[in-house]
Predict the structure of 6-phospho-beta-glucosidase.
Amino acid sequence: MKNSNRKFPNNFLWGASTSAFQVEGAGNSDGKGESVADVRTRAGKYMDSSVSVDEYHHLDEDISLMKKLGLKAYRFSISWTRVLPNGDLSIVNEKGVNYYHKLIDELVKNEIEPIVTMFHFDYPMALVNKYNGWVSKKSIKDFYNYADFLLKEYGDKVKYWLTINEQNVMVNQPEIMGTKANNKKELFQNAQVSNINMCLAQAEVFKMARERYRNIKIGPAVSYITALPENGKSKSILLAKQLEDYFSFYLMDISIRGIIPQSYLNTLNDKRVHLDLSKKDLQTLKEGTANYLGVNWYCTTTFKYKDKNNKDGFVLDDFSVIKDSDLDYTKWGWSNDPVGLRYAMQQLNDRYPEIEVLVTECGWSDEDKLEDGKIHDEKRIKYFKGHIEQLRLAIKDGVHIIGFCPWSFIDLLSVNDGMNKRYGFVYVDRNNHDEKQLTRYEKDSFYFYQSVIKNNGLKF
Ligand code: BGP
């Protein structure tokens, strides 16, 4: 009895995650069309996504490593433009379609559950050029057609689907979607319009998928920014709550409950954002909801008001982030706060008790050094030890958590920091300026996670 209390469910999905533009490379090969991520990384200060860590050409080797690690699941994304180079159905790239068949088939053969994200930060450039991407209502149909295409092609092989990765992050960093605007105010307006169009597109896909593919699970992958108050005063606690509502919960409410929360509309109203929402749109949101929830969770963040005299409470520009002296932070300022994960999972369970949660990202970034063929990433191991233990407690608390997919299976291109910021269990020998041989090495955390999976949890 004591022992079973310590275990995770038998079919728990011990996984690991990546995304297409960050891991695949082959950015300009085999008929792939250009994505916003390709253009964005090319313009950045580090390497671009044309090579990344070249999983496209290292597929067999990487799948062998997944097998060795013992993964029960692999979360990856399909590159929209590798399959549909123009973003719409005008051209289908057979080589791209076959690449994902091969990937999925190999995973299944190796008893690794594929978890597929349809759109992870790599929007088709052709659609940005055609109609400013998600800002236009036309984007809804093109996403629907893409999702429909994927489900027809791979729907009988893949049970777990995620529609859009971190829509709530893209809205706050609209350059990730390639959104164009003439000024800051217009950019904010366009980002919010894009937000709603993504919600509508996703709702139509949820509805279609749940009607036609009865056996699949489909949901969003939302970034849950768990906000902590600077102190125990009510005003501070209120700020943290309002930030969670504004950054994360609104999107979960739309995806799971099919309603746009009033608090979200109020904030947009304060910002003079106009949303063109018809009765039919509201009905679409109501009818198309997710049947599970993907959550990207890395850390807690502590917030404080900038203006102590702010009387009205929540104002979107009036907060700053502070560090908690009790916590350790990555070089990029992300905390190691395992109890925060248990708290976050409980919050989700309180809000959506009927919904199963899949942790789709969680991880510790570092520069990681290769020394004599070894990588001693103790801080990452410490991070995962704490988080896996708290995850177990959250399950014991009654939260329906079906799996854990750390970011990332292998070192890959960070969204803003190239290869400087690494997350993988597998090290890839390259840097921002030299591709070298892209040799793979197992980090110490690889063996740690291998043992976690083997023991179905931490070994006590
Ligand atoms: C999430 C993204 C991932 C990943 C991760 C780490 O927001 O879904 O794509 O990159 O964060 O972020 P970064 O690469 O900025 O360290």
Observations:
- The mean pLDDT is 95.
- The radius of gyration is 21 Å.
- Residues 19, 22, 165-166, 169, 223, 296, 361, 365, 407, 414-416, 421 surround 6-O-phosphono-beta-D-galactopyranose (CB under 6 Å).
